[in-house]
Design goal:
- By secondary structure, the chain is mainly α.
- It folds into two domains: 55 residues, no CATH class; 214 residues, MetI-like fold (Orthogonal Bundle), CATH 1.10.3720.
- 72% of the residues lie in helices and 0% in strands.
- It has 15 helices and no strands.
- The radius of gyration is 24 Å and the shape is globular.
- The relative contact order is 0.14.
């Protein structure tokens, strides 16, 4: 019994130490935003501000277009989330419940898409968006992010688990395929849909590389790209830069705190599919 208690105590200590080690960079970033710039560049390590200030946040709020960047992020991330869920749910339902020519080939293509890193498609996506005239447009940011095969697979696997009797009973009652999808199958997986919606929104919000490439005008930038524009004639201002980064991460941090169980569920679903 004593050995078990000692092992549990050691495990607890190690877990707490790892958690503190993981959280320290976040703590350091937040504390730095509350310091004056001259204190940030002082030699040594200061774990606590000598003088508390919100100057970095005030500068970002009053001297940048962060309000516009927030709007762009909310619009594009919301559009990506809604469209990904609609496309993935419909595709998953079709692959699971319908029989049509090319179904197997389509399913194999979706599975094979895991072997293609999204980075290899950036040049193709950029050329397409440029040809369509979507550079510096919301559509140019949204459309390439709609390729999420893992969501299709998750939906298909869930629909595969629903007993065939539900479908047969609904068909006997005269339900159409649209009614089957919207009134029978889709309401059964609101939990999965909610989890996927949260993690898709967070992923779209945090996306940097593609919005950075397709948007060059400041008033069309997402907040993750816009914060790179926080600078002035005096060079790098660490407190201001980190203040912008904290403001950019604040919405997704709040979303995670409010819906962490759903986020964890979605990550486990994705990891299970990829594994």
């Amino acid at each position: 019994m004593k050995r078990l208690n000692i092992s549990a105590a050691i495990l607890t200590i190690v877990t707490v130490a790892c958690a503190l080690l993981w959280a320290f960079p976040l703590y350091w970033a937040v504390i730095t935003t509350l310091k004056n710039e001259y204190e940030v560049v002082e030699p040594g390590i200061g774990l606590w501000p000598k003088i508390w200030t919100l100057g970095g946040y005030l500068y970002v709020i009053t001297n940048t277009q962060i309000g516009r960047w927030y709007l762009n992020s909310f619009v594009t991330s919301g559009a990506v989330t809604i469209l990904v869920l609609m496309i993935s749910a419909a595709c998953g339902y079709a692959l699971s419940q319908l029989r049509f020519p090319g179904r197997t080939i389509l399913w194999l293509i979706i599975l094979a898409s895991f072997m293609v890193p999204i980075q290899t498609l950036i040049v193709t996506h950029f050329i397409l968006m440029n040809d369509f005239g979507f550079i510096n447009r919301w559509a140019g940011v949204v459309l390439p992010q709609l390729i999420v095969p893992v969501a299709i697979i998750i939906y298909k696997q869930f629909f595969d688990q629903i007993p065939r009797e539900y479908r047969e009973a609904a068909l006997i009652d005269g339900a159409s395929e649209y009614q089957l999808f919207f009134r029978v199958f889709l309401p059964m997986n609101w939990g999965i849909t909610t989890a996927l919606a949260i993690i898709t929104f967070i992923g779209a919000w945090n996306n940097f590389l593609w919005p950075f490439l397709v948007v060059t005008e400041q008033d069309m930038m997402n907040v993750t790209v816009g914060i790179t524009q926080v600078h002035d004639a005096f060079g790098v201002q660490y407190a201001r830069n980190l203040s912008g980064a904290v403001l950019a991460a604040l919405p997704v941090a709040l979303a995670y705190l409010l819906f962490q169980r759903r986020v964890t569920e979605a990550i486990m679903l994705s990891a299970g599919i990829k594994g």
